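This section describes the prediction task in plain terms. A model, or a person checking by hand, is given the sequence of a single protein chain and must write out its three-dimensional structure as a string of tokens. No templates, partner chains or ligands are provided. The sample shown here is typical of the held-out split.
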Amino acid sequence: MLFLMSRLKTERKDSSKSLRAGESVLRKAEDVVSSMLAKGFILGKDAIAKAKSVEEKHQLTSTASAKVASLDKKLGFTDKINTGTVVVGDKVREVDHKHQVLEKTK
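The expected answer:
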């Protein structure tokens, strides 16, 4: 399906994958910090500043994002997941049409 896109669209898609990967890494870090706070950990300003300093020095987020995007491009996880989602959606609609599940649950 997406294989017929022009090179420009493919490059744009690859850059958006990198952005999504970076967002995913950032979301995971936020989840870890939120979980720690919820469990009663107290993060001082110096701990947060240290974490920020380490991130700026080593650029962990951008490095991880680039690695994830590279692996995704190499292995095609996003395309496989998208294809799987379409197939599953089609099967769900097929089962619903055959057994009228939606109508019976109203």
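For orientation: Residues 7-38 form the longest helix (32 residues).
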